[in-house]
Amino acid sequence: MLDALTIAVSVAALALAAWCGLAAFRDQPTKDWHFIGMAVVTLLALVQLVIGVVQLARGEKADEGATIFIAYLVGAFAAVPAAGFLSLAERTRWGSATVAAGAVVLAVLEVRLHDIWGG
User: Fold this and answer.
1) 98 near 86, Cβ under 8 Å?
2) Which ranges of the chain would DSSP assign to H, the alpha helix?
3) Which SS3 state, helix, strand or coil, does residue 64 take?
4) How far apart are CA 70 and CA 78, in angstroms?
5) What are the residues whose beta carbons fall under 8 Å from the beta carbon of 38, sequence distance 6 or more?
6) What is the spatial distance between Cα 63 and Cα 85, in angstroms, rounded to a whole number?
7) Rounded to an integer, what distance in angstroms lies between the CA atom of residue 62 and that of residue 68?
8) What are the pLDDT digits (tens) for 43-71?
9) What are phi and psi of 23, to 5 degrees?
10) pLDDT-derived band of residue 119, with 50, 70 and 90 as boundaries?
11) How many Å separate Cα 88 from the centre of its chain?
12) Is residue 96 within 8 Å of 34, Cβ to Cβ?
């Protein structure tokens, strides 16, 4: 995996978590700007998913196995969009808190992906 991309996804996810956490603290639901931030983070996770699959297809190997690596890649890609959809159903401060939690989950998954790949 590309270390720079893993760091970029992690930093973007933590920035989104802080931003949505601040909105939850201020008793605000997710707004359009939050969804733009979620889209950026999701796009980075999608790029990472594609690069990971391409690296596996070229014959590179994850230390802990391709199946677990793919599962973590898909989970990392789905974490923020899932939280975003949940925040649409909960139009209170808890929607923002849900997105913040999903972004923290993504950052943790990035650390685990780095370990699985062999970092």
Assistant:
1) yes
2) 3-25, 32-57, 66-89, 93-117
3) coil
4) 12
5) 16, 80, 81, 83, 84, 99
6) 33
7) 9
8) 999 999 999 999 999 999 888 889 999 99
9) -65, -40
10) low
11) 18
12) yes
